[in-house]
Amino acid sequence: MAELLSGTREDVLSRWYRIVSEFTNRRITYEDDRLPALSGIASRIHQHLGDPYIVGLWQGDMVRGLTWANRLYRKQRLKKYPTNSPSRLWSPTWAWASRGHGYYASSAIDMEPKALLLDVSTTPLGSNPLGCVASARLSIQAHFQGFRWRKSTAAAPGDWLLVSDDASPLVRGTVIFDESHVEDRASRQYWAVLLGLIKRENSELSCYAMALEQVDAPGPEIFRRVGLIKGYMRREAPIFDVSEVGAEKWLLQGESRAVHLV
């Protein structure tokens, strides 16, 4: 435990993300046991850093923590791996704890955050404040863009976001959906919320964003997370005969607004 808490705040958080990644790669009898099983480690880190712990994420590192993704997405799409079974207990869609086996925590160690945490609130389920929750809501300020998803083809490897229904220009990016099998995905309206930019030498990866879908509910707009977007830089020579734009440029052109998630 002493090694877990040694070094800088960044060192401690990096170890936490590795622990979560390893833990979510294991199959356990009850998915609902994941958060309680980590609560002991989370309690020590909370005491050491003084940072509020929110459903498997840290409030002071919330934007980076939101960059978790389904590591089995490609295999599940090809039916080489069974689809995850989500927890029977409720968890917010923006937390990795809302999903089952095969999810990894943040890999955006070198990300420059572009979103701002406005508010986060939870209602614990039971007496353990570091365990499961009965309700939770997250509000962030971020650049916001609507898009439709286009399935990859042999001529267009990877997944592409569409800026508009006429498919021009294409935004260079991959959507890693939290659920692998959803009907009529190509016809749905999605939104992208920029989390941060990547400053990494010799890498085409340029940004991370959340993919959202609007919740059908009365009152102000509420969204749920449906995936993670990995955005890439525009190529000097696009591979198809259509205009192409880098994901980071497209996202930064979007309106900066408050976005509320459940």
Oligomer: single chain
Please work out how many helical segments DSSP would assign: 5
Strand order of the largest sheet: 7-8-9-12-11-10
How would you sum up the major sheet? Answer: 6 strands, antiparallel, barrel
How many domains would you count in the coordinates?
Answer: 2
Q: Give, in order, the helices and strands.
A: HHEEHEHEEEEEEEEEEHE
Mean pLDDT: 81
**What class, by secondary structure content?**
alpha+beta
The low-pLDDT segments are none
* Through-space gap between termini: 33 Å
Radius of gyration: 18 Å
* Percent of sequence in beta strands: 25-35%
Helix content: 10-25%
The backbone outline, from C-alpha atoms, is globular
Tally of strands: 14
How would you describe this structure in keywords?
5 helices, 2 domains, 262 residues, alpha+beta, globular, 6-stranded antiparallel β-barrel, single chain, 18% helix, two-stranded antiparallel ribbon
